Amino acid sequence: MKISREIKTAILVISGILLLVFLFNYLKGENLLESDNTFYTEFDYNALSSSSPVTVKGNAVGKIREIKYNFDTGKTRVEFTVDDNLSFSKQSTVRLYKTGLMGGNALELIIREEGEQAKSGDYLKSTVEEGLVEKLTENFESVSQDLDVTLKSADTLLINLNSLVVDDSENGVKNAIAELNKTMKSFQNLSYSINKIVTKNDEKLGSMLNNFDSISKDLAIVTNDLKDVKLSQTMAELDRTLGSVNAIIANIENGNGSMGKLLNDDGLYTNLEGAALQMEQLLEDMKLNPKRYVHFSLFGKKPKRYDADGNEIKDND
Predict the structure, then answer these.
(1) How would DSSP label each residue in 215-264?
(2) Can you tell me whether residue 31 is helix, strand or coil?
(3) Distance CA 125, CA 43 (A)
(4) CA-CA distance, 94 to 64, in Å (whole number)?
């Protein structure tokens, strides 16, 4: 059997629509392939949202599907689903409770096993966590008080702003704007003056920039030369030289070598001091008795000799 093109198109369109509906409900959190049971309950006020969960002993077993106001009873009707694997009686209750400080509110299913089995579409009794209403009332009161304080502060701020705008004294906004306008004009005149100075000294500024450019190039060359210097090797050689000098100085201090003996030997100093004294005495004696040391004769006369005490030594002919 041959299927026409129109039938194929219709099947494709219907399949696309069904897939779109399934995806739309899936994104809403409803899985059309799952058969959850639906139940209803009512509260005197609405403190829930469509994203609030339904829990049993802290475990999520369902979710809220719809929240509507019942015009007949004046209460909030809540439609929620529960996993069909969970069985409980009609005596079970639904409790509204607060999940946490920032978690919002949720429904807790308090299961009772005695009695007739609950079926999908049944109404369940509801309770509210003790103190929840008072907490909500306090929250609304605090919000109202905060809003009142905020409105009063805003009114005071507007009055102050109005007084500033209307005030023509030194503290007024008009006067401040006028002073700001004067300051801006002064900056404008200053910018004009700087522009004139730059225009008149354009050539000098260009020359200064050229000189700065040449100086920067020279500094770059010097920097490159310093890079080529083996600074680490030079420092190592200097360190070795200083080590050698330190060794020489240590030898001198220890009296090793000629220089060490010369600086540290007291006997050498004593001998030098005695030699200097004898030299001084010799020079003094040469001044007093020059004839003992200098002999001059035109006729070749034999000079006289003297002993260590200065007495003349006579020759025995």
Answers:
(1) HHHHHHHHHHHHHHS-HHHHHHHHHHHHHHHHHHHHHHHHT-HHHHHHHH
(2) coil
(3) 9
(4) 12
* Three state DSSP letters for 166-199: HCCCCCCHHHHHHHHHHHHHHHHHHHHHHHHHHH
Identify whether the C-beta of residue 166 lies closer than 8 Å to the C-beta of residue 175: no
- What is the distance, to the nearest Å, from the Cα of residue 308 to the centroid of all Cα atoms in its chain? 98
Give the tokens for residue 204. Answer: 């000098």
Tokens 């190592």 — which residue? 236
Looking at the 3D structure of the chain, how many domains does it have? Answer: 2
pLDDT one-digit tens code per residue, 109-150: 999 988 899 998 999 999 988 655 555 555 555 556 666 777
**Furthest-apart CA pair in the chain: how many Å?**
180
Same domain, 104 and 22: no
Instruction: For residue 53, tell me if it sits in a domain.
Output: yes
Residue 213 falls inside a structural domain: no
Confirm whether pTM is higher than 0.70: no
